[in-house]
Every structure is written in structure tokens, then in C-alpha cells.
Specification:
Blueprint (H helix, E strand, L loop, with lengths): L8 E2 L2 E6 L3 E18 L4 E7 L4 E5 L2 E5 L3 H15 L5 E6 L4 H6 L7 E6 L2 H10 L1 H4 L7 E5 L2 H7 L9 E7 L13 H9 L1 E10 L8 H12 L4 E8 L7 E8 L15 H7 L5 H6 L5 H8 L1
Parallel strand pairs: 7-8, 7-10, 8-9, 10-11
Antiparallel strand pairs: 1-2, 2-3, 3-4, 4-5, 5-6, 11-13, 12-13
The chain binds S-adenosylmethionine.
S-adenosylmethionine binds next to strand 6, strand 7, strand 8 and helix 5.
């Protein structure tokens, strides 16, 4: 079998195509070597070594992370909500089987409780083997991993009990086609709301950006706004996500939360020591949109 034998790899190029998520365009990465292919109980998994972006994890044909640019996503989806909260002590991550978000949460010593809920153990195992820079966090004793569906986990959390609530919930899931479909529905945001402490914050990868399907972003923003008093759109730039950027929706239970302005910040020196992408300026800038997109999303 040749190193390039895979339905999504042609002449040594991996091609990401999705009529649902980004009709009429595609992204290609040059493949050096296929590292793993598998159909798990939940999804099709492909891990390959690319020529220029390091190892790449693909689920159901969609790129999840590449070693070269993953920090742009992991840092923003983690540090935006953490620095938007005055005193966060507990974080729940839904999805996130590559471990990158956990790695970022661990940079905040004051976070006492960290739980990750991943549906597919295979993703965690493969990340430990092929995405070592991300999966490193799984060794940390602070982290509790639950292998189950994130939606069911929230349903069963015992939403009345205070000790089961979180200050921050990060939905680091795959896209709406597949096992993460429920994470884009209103019922999920109700479950999130009830699983948060007062002044709690949620952030979710929006699967889209303003250049792709802005109408889906607007629907998602409205859906979240039917549950949370305040929701804002932010984005991060990631070359291996189609059209180079990915939207993030951040919402708070506190109607006075600013979200686009950090509540706390570190010195520039400390920021440079800890982060490759995030800093207090980019926190604010990531909410600023060009006029057409701003007007459309705020309408
Ligand atoms: N950064 C990525 C992105 O935006 O494309 C997300 C990466 S992370 C690998 C996504 C994870 O969500 C996958 O490991 C997948 O197995 C997990 N996932 C999908 N549906 C899930 C569910 N219902 N419950 C828990 N985890 C889920």
C-alpha cells in the first residue's frame, strides 16, 4: 500500500471539501506520509504528516488541528473566556480530545478543577502518539477525563447541585455534521447555562467565519442570545481552517460582562513567556469586525 492511499488524498495532496460548511471552495495540504487511518465508533479518523504544517488530525474529512498553527485556536478559545472572568476556579472542556485546550488551561495555576468530556477515546490515544505537544496535558493530575457524549454529560450533571457547576465551559468540538451536531442547538445552550456558576462564561467554536456562511453565525448568535443575556462574536486566524479564520461565540450569564475587554491581564513579559498568540491587545482586537460583517451580525 502506498503512503498516499486514502480517498481524501490525491497525488500526494489532502483535500478538504464540504458542500455544507464551505461550498465552492476547498483547502489542500501536501502530504509527506499517512500516519494513521481508522473508522472509530464515532467518526472517520485520519492523521498524516504534512510537508509544511507538521502532523495533522482530520475527523470526518475536516481538519481539526495542525501542529504548526494549532496554538492560534487553542490559546484564543481558552484565554478569551478565562481573562474575561474576574475569578475563575473551574473549567469544563467539551470535546478537545487532542489536549491542546487542556494545555492552555493549565497555564493558569489558580484554576482548581478541570474536566474534559470527550466522546471518542481513539482521538485521545492518537493525539498522545502523534500530537505530543498538545496531548502532554493529559498526564497532569489536576485533569479529570470523562469518556462520554458531552451533551449527555451535561444532562446528567445534576444541574441543581452547586458543586457540579463551572465558571467556564469551553466547547472545543468538531463541526455540526457528525457527533457534535447537538452543540449548535438551543437546548445545548440551556444545559450550558444551567451548568454554570453565576457570572459563568461559555465559549464555543462557531464552525464558520464571516467569509463563509455569515448567516449561520447570525443564527447561532441569536440561538445563544435566547438563553444568555450577552453574546459576542470573536475570531482567530488559523491558516489550516478553510479561508484562514475561525469564529468563536462567547457568552456570559452576567448581563454586564464586557467579554471583549479582559477583566484581568498579565505583564507583557509574562504574556510572551506563556503565549504565542494571545495577548491583551489581541483579546480586544479579535472582536472588531469589518463594517459589512458587524452590521449583519448586529442587525
Ligand atoms: N479545534 C477543532 C476544530 O475546531 O475543528 C476541534 C478539535 S477537537 C479534536 C474536537 C473533538 O470533539 C473531537 O475529538 C471529537 O471526538 C469531539 N466530539 C465531537 N462530538 C462530541 C460529543 N458529542 N461529545 C464529546 N466530544 C465530542
Amino acid at each position: 500500500m502506498s503512503d498516499f492511499t486514502h480517498p481524501l488524498i490525491n497525488n500526494g495532496w489532502f483535500k478538504e471539501v464540504s458542500d455544507e460548511l464551505f461550498p465552492g471552495q476547498a483547502l489542500e495540504l501536501k502530504v509527506k506520509k499517512i500516519l494513521h487511518t481508522e473508522k472509530s465508533e464515532f467518526q472517520d479518523i485520519l492523521v498524516f504528516e504534512s510537508t509544511d504544517y507538521g502532523n495533522v488530525l482530520v475527523l470526518d474529512g475536516i481538519i481539526q488541528v495542525s501542529e504548526r498553527d494549532e496554538f492560534a485556536y487553542q490559546e484564543m478559545i481558552t484565554h478569551l473566556p478565562i481573562f474575561s472572568h474576574k475569578d475563575p476556579k473551574s473549567v469544563l472542556v467539551i470535546g478537545g480530545g487532542d489536549g491542546g485546550v487542556l494545555r492552555e488551561v493549565l497555564k493558569h495555576d489558580y484554576i482548581e478543577k478541570i474536566v474534559l468530556v470527550e466522546i471518542d477515546e481513539t482521538v485521545i490515544q492518537l493525539s498522545k502518539k502523534y500530537l505530543k505537544g498538545m496531548a502532554i496535558a493529559f498526564e497532569n493530575p489536576k485533569i479529570e477525563v470523562k469518556l462520554c457524549d458531552g451533551f449527555k454529560y451535561l444532562l446528567e450533571l445534576g444541574q441543581e447541585s452547586i458543586e457540579n457547576k463551572f465558571d467556564i465551559i469551553i466547547t472545543d468540538s468538531s463541526d455540526p455534521e457528525g457527533p457534535a451536531a447537538a452543540f449548535f442547538q438551543q437546548q445545548y445552550f440551556k444545559l450550558l447555562y444551567n451548568s454554570l456558576n453565576s457570572k459563568g462564561i461559555v465559549i464555543t467554536q462557531a464552525s464558520e467565519n464571516v467569509w463563509l456562511k455569515i448567516e449561520l453565525l447570525k443564527n447561532l448568535k441569536n440561538t445563544i442570545n435566547q438563553v444568555f443575556p450577552i453574546v459576542k462574536y470573536s475570531y482567530t486566524t488559523v491558516p489550516t481552517y478553510t479561508s484562514g479564520q475561525l469564529g468563536l461565540m462567547i457568552a456570559s450569564k452576567d448581563p454586564n460582562a464586557k467579554l471583549n475587554i479582559p477583566e484581568r491581564s498579565l505583564s507583557e513579559l509574562k504574556e510572551e513567556e506563556l503565549f504565542k498568540y494571545y495577548n491583551k491587545e489581541i483579546h480586544k482586537a479579535s472582536f472588531i469586525l469589518p463594517n459589512w460583517a458587524k452590521n449583519y451580525l448586529d442587525q
